[in-house]
Amino acid sequence: MRAEYLRNTLTALFDAKRTVCIEGPPGGGKTSIVRQVARELDVHYIERHLPTSLVEDFGIPNISGDTLAFMVPDWFPAKGSKYDDGRGGILCFDDRNQASNDLQKLLANICQAKTLHGVAMADGWQVISTGNRQADRAGANRVLSHLRNRETVLELDTHLDDWRKWALENNVVTEVVSFIGWRPQLLHKFDADADCNPTPRSWVEGVSDVLGIVPKDVEYECFAGAIGEGAASEFVGFMRIFRKLPNPDAVLLNPESADVPTDPATLHALAGAIAERISVSNIDRAVSYLERLSGEFGVLAMSRAIKRDPELQNTKGFTDWAINNQDLLF
What we know:
The chain is of the alpha/beta class. The chain has helices at residues 3-16, 30-41, 101-113, 145-148, 160-169, 174-182, 200-208, 219-227, 229-243, 248-253, 264-275, 283-290, 295-308, 316-324, 326-329, and strands at 20-23, 44-49, 60-64, 67-71, 89-94, 115-116, 119-120, 125-131, 152-155.
């Protein structure tokens, strides 16, 4: 299931409070999607990382007079706690599939009975887990059958359009967004036998976040250590093209006479660079140049610009451009 559909599905299932487990290869953004859904629903969000959790983290015996009872942790959204304020929330167990059998037995009771050691969970809370599959060789254990039977399992598939939309909303650098548009196969190419893989997470944290920070002469080594040698080689080659592009500002100043590249990689890079510079004040000049590009790249640049600045849709320049390119838009 692609990210956009998964997000909408989780939002719908929140009303039913159905327990969900999201599975997929490492680095796909499973937990990030759960956090985003909680923000959009404006509910509480609690996240517990299970590979580093012990059974004792879920409660310990306590003697009170002649009675033996469990003390549950303060993170558990119990009735009467600070989390029981009517807002509801999502309790996310991250990397659940790496949990021991004893922890999985605890989770099964939380999912089904909505209790922890006899302490009831507050109303309005949903349990969501995330995990890798055993085939991913990420330390996942076999999930106990009675736990699996108490949840809906949804598998996350990486989709270019969903990731590109997220990237533009979360300040991923233009160079990375443009490169992935040119080489979408490298967005999430996970190989369980490889030491490093290109994934949505490694592109953001290992490339976008360090581009321009590390010296240019060690970029390849840094990127290879995050996304693997093959993807790093291609991206460094793309960056050589990107850094030799015609000045996008000069292109927008002279849109009728500026050169139009023919190489697809260069066109992807230039479309991304222009998209970052389109504004209400220069959209007419931008449209003049985009009309000279092949339709695909003009649409690519304008769609990125609109996601960055929705006000562009209210301009005459955009309206004229949309009418001329309606066959590509619809």
